[in-house]
Amino acid sequence: MNKIPYSHLFVADAAFFSETEQAVLLQLLRIRLTSAHIKEFHNTVLDVEFKKIGDVSHSVGKIKAAFKVVPVPEFLSDEDNEISTTIRYAFSLTDDPPYKAVILTSSEAHKLYLENPHFKGSAIQILSGDSATTFVQNLYRQFTRAREQSRMQ
User: d(Cα 6, Cα 9) in Å, to the nearest integer?
Assistant: First the structure.
């Protein structure tokens, strides 16, 4: 399987899973598996967010296949705002290639992220709804192009 240097890493919150379709999860799984960067941490969800996932149309197994559930890092243990925790965690991922991250959330929570004082907007994007789906699909196209090129060789 080709390794692809995707432009961004993904961090999802619990709200994202209530809005996303199964097809997008499958695309995120392919992106995670083919990442040339840190595959294990390409798509992550903090364990505190994962625990909030209730009755969604996706099975927990599919979510865990597309996203690695990670504990809240020690440097964030004193953070009491969950949105700030997610933002600061995403920023910590931008220290390594590809140096950019996208937080995937719901349309409802999107504004809360943008208003958070920890959000500076440079290396991190906040995406929800159709814009999140489109962004994931654009990265997924890199996978499909690479797969087609490898089949032609």
Answer: 8
| Longest distance between any two alpha carbons in the chain, whole Å | 52
* Domain extents in the chain: 9-152
Instruction: Render pLDDT for 65-94 as a digit per residue (tens, 0 to 9).
Output: 999 999 999 999 999 999 999 999 999 999
| pTM score, whole prediction | 0.92
Is-contact 36 3, C-beta < 8 A?
Answer: yes
Whether the upstream peptide bond of residue 73 has omega within 30° of 0, thus cis, is no
What are the Cα distances from residue 23, in Å, to 73, 74, 140, 150? 30, 34, 11, 23
Residue type, 50: F
